Amino acid sequence: MSDELKAAPKAITGPSNFLDERLGGANFLKRNLRKVFPDHWSFLLGEIALYSFIILLLTGTFLTFWFKPSMAEIAYDGSYAPLKGVMMSQAYASSLEISFDVRGGLLMRQMHHWAALLFVAGMMVHALRVFFTGAYRKPREINWIIGVLLLTLALAEGLTGYSLPDDLLSGAGLRITEGVAISLPLVGTYLTFFLFGGEYPGEDVISRFYSLHILLIPGILLALISAHMVLMWVQKHTQMPGKGRDNHNVVGAPFYPAFMAKAGAYFLFTLAVITGLATFTQINPIWLFGPYTPADVSAGSQPDFYMGFLEGALRIMPAWEINLFGTAHAGTLPLSVIIPALVPMGIIMTGLALYPFLERWVTGDNREHHVADRPRNNPHRTSIGISAMTFYGVLWLLGANDEISAFFHVSLNHTTYAGRVLIFVAPALAYLITYRMCLGLQRSDQAIISHGVESGVIKRLPHGEFIEVHTPPAEDIEAHMRGKRPVPMLPVAEDSAGIPPKGMRGPLGKLRGRMSKAYGGEKIPLDDGHGHGHEDEHAAIGAGENDERSISH
């Protein structure tokens, strides 16, 4: 190949040299464009949330051109005939105009709504992936906290956006929001008047939610997402255990061109899915609900899925309240509202935020971790996560207890009572079942490492016994299994004088020691047994789990 063909075109080298001589970015770009990213399907879950957020920004910008955030009442005179002449707010009328009179408006509205659902769902599954693999451990605790804040803000962003069309369904959710806010001790009345501009429903709630929805919360989200990405870039991505992978390297493909090509294709795929959903699957048909009036509520009202667990908590909570000083006039604490609104969210979000630090306190593990865990290899963490998911799932399911009762012809009271029991029993059962499953999966890994995998080859021994020959597992599968490391545990042994280590004395230290002993350690160690490098290794058909025999030919 000639030098002319090897040289880059002048159209590229000219501007590149111009910018490099003034900005000095060549070394920076060269270093970062070759940054290696690991390859695993679960790492794409966070990208779903990122790309959905980009689509939200683009579609939301389109919608702001026509939406009128005003609660001033007008008579509808648009193209949707069933509502002609009906008094409604300008917010609802402009939402109808976007849906029926703006070219591509309904598509953009539905894309915005679907992208919002996918944004929250993507963050949820991404958070679960990080939690179950232990990717939140040192040095990524700060990024984990940022992720929890992002999820919390996404719920607030969804709530404010859901209320903007001012239709009957979103108005029912807004009424619940007002009830929760005003029930808060000391600050409830002030907070409610600030949001609604006076007595409910007021005249300002839509305009104030609009400011929160398009300015304040998105600005904070954008800043936190940027910080999240920068920290991930600086600290490098975690990788799954496997051949040649450890805490000191990253096995994968470079950012340019491999990762950029995959990321670009995945963004287009996400855009195509959201566009397809918006085109063929109707969501939030506000014209069927009608304008919101405080005196009306539609049957079967359900919030979007991410608020379903709060709805379920409200529905199963007993009608408890505390009258201060024995009289209602002195002040009432409506526990039937305060507890469902604050406790489930507090348990989930606070638990997520504190877990990395609580785990480090229990295990005493201050090492850096760049290789992720397989969920089965930390059974207590996995069991805690599944228990929390069950807690969330029961509340989410009971948010539709009226629909469940109507569809299955079950008493509404019975579903409510069952929910009150399940909210305590189901997470405990989920914990026990998950823990036993993790140990079972560890035993399965141990059996594969010790005895190999079934080959499908059946042999008959001279004395008539039939056996199946086992073969070694594939090299990459074995390396993946051997990436297992014992869960760290605090030293609790006493010294020669019988004195426990510092920090393990006193009631709190003893509790910490017991928790560390239960949480940490190796539950089912990998054991090579007699090795599996020979074809003669096998396990007899129908033999027990620990029955191992060898034959010679």
Automatic annotation (TrEMBL):
The UniProt transmembrane annotation reads: 48-67, 113-132, 144-164, 176-197, 209-234, 255-280, 337-358, 417-435
What EC number(s) is this enzyme filed under?
7.1.1.8
- List every stretch annotated Disordered: 520-553
Reactions catalysed, semicolon-separated, are: a quinol + 2 Fe(III)-[cytochrome c](out) = a quinone + 2 Fe(II)-[cytochrome c](out) + 2 H(+)(out)
Looking at the Swiss-Prot or TrEMBL record, what is one Pfam family this protein matches? Cytochrom_B_N_2
First-level EC class = translocase
The answer to whether keyword Glycoprotein applies is: no
Indicate yes or no for the key word Transmembrane helix.
yes
Needed co-factor(s): heme
Enumerate composition-biased segments (Basic and acidic residues).
524-539
- Which part of the chain is the Cytochrome b/b6 N-terminal region profile domain? 15-241
Q: Which InterPro entries match?
A: Cyt_b/b6_N, Cytb/b6-like_sf, Di-haem_cyt_TM
Sorted alphabetically, the keyword list is: Membrane, Transmembrane, Transmembrane helix
Read off the PROSITE patterns from this record.
CYTB_NTER
The protein here is known as Cytochrome bc1 complex cytochrome b subunit
Q: Which organism is it from?
A: Nonomuraea antimicrobica
